[in-house]
Design brief:
By secondary structure, the chain is α+β, with helices and mostly antiparallel strands. The chain has one domain. It contains two helices and three strands; from the N terminus they run ββαβα.
Length: 64
């Protein structure tokens, strides 16, 4: 089952609480959009709330 993006009233993807991956082989970035393709690939068991001190991923930067 595919996760659906939450949309703001204007139809834009929603920002979410920052999170990053706890997998040491994943890039050292954090995500803050619910429809970030890189963030959606992180299994729930590896998602950690917060930025981890990492920069935002480039997909999230592009989403605004």
């Amino acid at each position: 089952m595919r996760e659906q993006a939450h949309l703001e009233p204007g139809g834009n993807p929603m920002k979410v609480q920052p999170y990053h991956s706890g997998n040491p082989t994943d890039p050292d970035v954090h995500h803050d959009h619910d429809n970030c393709p890189s963030g959606q690939q992180i299994p729930l068991s590896n998602k950690i709330v917060g930025t981890g001190g990492y920069p935002r991923c480039q997909h999230c930067v592009g989403l605004g």
